[in-house]
Amino acid sequence: MTEKEFNKIRPGKTIVNVGTKEGYKKMLVKFFCCNRDNFDGYWLCCTEDFSNPYPIEFKDDDWNVYIDDTEIIQL
C-alpha cells in the first residue's frame, strides 16, 4: 500500500486484506495506531469482527497491522 492509498483510509469503513502466517484475511480498519508524536511507520488496528462493537478500543482479538502487509479491498 502506498502513502497515497493510506491517506484514503476511513476507520470503520475501509476493508483491507491482511497478510498473515495463515494467508490473507479480510479485516475492517478500526483506527490508526500511528501518530506524529510517536511515528515508527504506518500502523492500523484491524478486526475480523465487521460489526465493530468497540471502534476505539484495542481488544485481544484485534490486529496491529503494518501497511506493507495490507491491500485495500474497499474504501
Structure notes:
The protein is mostly beta strands. The chain has a five-stranded antiparallel sheet, with no helix packed on it. The chain has one domain: SH3 type barrels. The chain is built from one helix and five strands, in the order αβββββ. A hairpin with a 2-residue loop joins strand 1 and strand 2 (23-32). The radius of gyration is 11 Å and the shape is globular. The mean pLDDT is 89.
Describe the secondary structure blueprint for this structure.
Elements (H helix, E strand, L loop, with lengths): L2 H4 L8 E6 L2 E10 L10 E5 L15 E4 L3 E5 L1
Antiparallel strand pairs: 1-2, 1-5, 2-3, 3-4
Short summary of the structure?
This protein is mainly beta and 75 residues long.
Shape call: globular
Query: Which segments are poorly predicted (pLDDT under 50) over 5 or more consecutive residues?
Result: none
- As an assembly, this protein is single chain
The second-level CATH architecture is Roll
CATH topology: SH3 type barrels
Fraction of helical residues? under 10%
What proportion strand? Answer: 35-45%
Task: Kindly list the characteristics that best describe this protein.
SH3 type barrels, 5% helix, 1 helix, mainly beta
